[in-house]
């Protein structure tokens, strides 16, 4: 059982964008940040349900495939689930439609209680007000021996990194400068000391860094 | 004639370190930031005058060799020359000894007038109070058709990048987190739009990004 993170950031370290509008809740920068990942065959199959075998099949796709492999539970922040964009909508069920791509128990950290949701395809959403370590205990039990993903956003990921709870961190860096948003790397001086770091460049120009214990 | 920058930064974007002491004017982080570059055969030959052929000969060395190729003049900030560390020493002649590795005219941007220095091996230091564009005009004339390097620190480099005056930017990213210092990337949103960006990973784990017009 490992605790894993996969995150996409810009070269200047921003993991979220700030150009969201009501009409475009992810913002235009988002598509540039996640473009190489969204272009992969594995993303298209797993997230978009596209069975036509389209999409890239190179290094980015290898990471996209690994992303979904052997995950038994996920922990995510309220923002990733959409509770900041839709705080007062009791019927909000996330961004991912009736059959979300997680296919495992997902624990959403939020101070506002909400009843759990059971979705098609094996995904459930449970809303927790808990510390990172407490949420990890819950997720670990639910994961049944498989890995637990800390799904983001960057503030949650940083909390887990600072608490020393992450075993495997994969960061995909898009070679673009956003200059605003939430920084992943703040207050993580010397993080590399506890890990072996491996780097490679994908055909898309995306830089992949992997931190392993 | 191109205007070129080569800079080493940490993964979180810091190009200078802040752990300097009177006994260690570069700070301990500095050796981690520039370690892969300082280990190359080209650096050892050109900067240390080590003719034993020692040092690495891989991808980092290719960049270190290119660093010195076809440079006709350099512009640097007062901090790089050492005027912040030794502001009141009229005999200060830079960090590099009697025969600095530049071997070309060097223009040091500073508000405090100082007489020019002529060093062994073809290096001269001229102290200028000038705008980035004015200093570039001076350096361009001195470069005699060769390239002009903007040598740093990061604040000077950022001034030139923001002014759109840089043709070729090479950034070597050490996969370490410093969490303090001067950030290279601040206020450069969308810089990549004017360039073709090429990335590769060296044997040392250093990430090399090159922005070409």
TrEMBL record, chains A, B:
Pfam families: RibD_C. One of its GO terms (molecular function) is 5-amino-6-(5-phosphoribosylamino)uracil reductase activity. One of its GO terms (biological process) is riboflavin biosynthetic process. Gene3D superfamilies: Dihydrofolate Reductase, subunit A (3.40.430.10). It comes from the Bacteria. Signal peptide: none annotated. InterPro entries: DHFR-like_dom_sf, RibDG_C. Residues 3-185 form the Bacterial bifunctional deaminase-reductase C-terminal domain. This is RibD C-terminal domain-containing protein. It comes from Sphingomonas guangdongensis. The lineage of its organism: Bacteria, Pseudomonadati, Pseudomonadota, Alphaproteobacteria, Sphingomonadales.
């Amino acid at each position: 059982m490992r605790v894993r993170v996969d995150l996409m950031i810009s070269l200047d370290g921003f993991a979220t964008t700030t150009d969201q509008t009501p009409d475009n809740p992810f913002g235009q920068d988002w598509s540039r940040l996640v473009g190489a990942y969204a272009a992969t065959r594995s993303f298209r199959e797993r997230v978009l349900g596209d069975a036509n075998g389209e999409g890239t099949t190179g290094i980015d796709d290898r990471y996209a495939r690994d992303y979904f492999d052997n995950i038994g539970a996920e922990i995510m922040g309220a923002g990733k689930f959409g509770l900041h964009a839709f705080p007062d909508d009791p019927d909000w069920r996330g961004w991912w439609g009736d059959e979300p791509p997680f296919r495992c128990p997902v624990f959403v950290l939020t101070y506002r209680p909400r009843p759990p949701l059971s979705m098609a395809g094996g995904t459930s959403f449970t809303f927790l007000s808990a510390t990172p370590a407490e949420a990890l205990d819950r997720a670990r039990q639910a994961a049944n021996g498989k890995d637990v993903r800390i799904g983001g956003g960057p503030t949650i990921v940083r909390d887990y990194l600072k608490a020393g709870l992450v075993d495997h961190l994969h960061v995909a860096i898009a070679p673009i400068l956003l200059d605003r948003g939430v920084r992943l790397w703040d207050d993580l001086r010397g993080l590399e000391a506890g890990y072996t770091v491996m780097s490679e460049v994908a055909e898309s120009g995306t830089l992949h860094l992997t931190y392993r214990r």
